[in-house]
Design brief:
alpha/beta, Spore Coat Polysaccharide Biosynthesis Protein SpsA, Chain A, two-stranded antiparallel ribbon, 11 strands, globular
């Protein structure tokens, strides 16, 4: 795979949220949350142009405001099923003729560009791989890269259409795809108890403090600088840890996912 224009990015976002409605458009340092995420994805060395970044949202009228912001940022939009992210992704890859994608989550405005590069590097270096993920980064900063072939395998096998929670497990836990995990071994990027995903008001407070301290217009700051900031500002780092148990409990309750195995049986993904 050498045609750079066929490498893009997919980001699932919808403004409806049980816990923090409209979070993608909340203000961080004078800009919407989603704008910061798009900047980080656009900085990936494999993304040739911002148009190759596709925000996968819904056809709901409430997401019209999101579409306007994304397009104003020079990125693309695909609108599809409300709860079926696998369908949205598959249709978006076909619509934009993407052979491989970096995948970041809309809840994660500090997704690490460094590991977008690393996961795509590893994917492109080994034709046998369908998806590459990374382990050892703070929650909310890791990204993935996968091929169109892996998308096709998942689309053919998944059986749970309500997969807005846990959709990535079809790629990583079903055995359908050839999966490699990169282990982060760099201490500057590690912080086991950091929570950097945006689901609750208290998460937004943490992001606001980080961006107030580190953001400079026209540039992005590294994950290493975020980790250093949190390690030297423990009060901020600990502010949202109280929601962690409920976050994972909710994930386990909602991520009830089934797929068809190679032998034809329908199986449930075990978390």
């Amino acid at each position: 795979m050498t045609i750079k224009e066929n490498i893009g990015a997919l980001i699932p976002i919808r403004l409806a949220s049980e816990r923090l409605p409209g979070k993608a458009l909340l203000d961080l340092a004078g800009r919407p949350v989603v704008a910061h995420l798009l900047d980080r994805v656009a900085a990936c060395k494999h993304i040739a142009m911002r148009k190759n970044i596709v925000v996968c949202t819904t056809e709901d009228a409430e997401d019209d405001a999101l579409v306007q912001v994304v397009e104003a940022e020079g990125c693309s939009v695909y609108r599809g099923h409300r709860n079926d992210i696998i369908a949205r992704f598959a249709d978006a890859m076909r619509a934009y003729d993407l052979d491989a994608v970096v995948q970041a989550d809309g809840d994660d405005p500090l997704s690490a560009t460094e590991y977008m590069d690393a996961t795509m590097d590893a994917l492109l270096a080994d034709e046998s791989l369908d998806i590459v993920t990374v382990d050892g980064l703070p929650l909310g900063t890791a990204t993935k890269s996968f091929r169109r072939r892996g998308m096709d395998l998942v689309e053919a096998s998944y059986r749970t259409e309500k997969n807005d929670t846990g959709f990535i497990y079809f790629f990583t836990k079903s055995g359908v795809c050839q999966h490699r995990v990169l282990d982060c071994e760099e201490p500057d990027y590690q912080m086991d108890d950091a929570r950097l995903t945006l689901d609750y008001t208290v998460d937004y407070e943490v992001f606001s403090a980080i961006f107030e301290a580190l953001y400079q217009e026209g540039s992005i700051f590294s994950l290493a600088s975020v980790v250093r900031f949190l390690k030297t500002n423990s009060v901020i780092a600990q502010r949202n840890l109280s929601v962690e148990e409920g976050y994972w409990q909710r994930t386990a309750e909602k991520a009830v996912l089934s797929f068809q195995a190679q032998d034809g049986s329908v199986q449930r993904i075990e978390l």
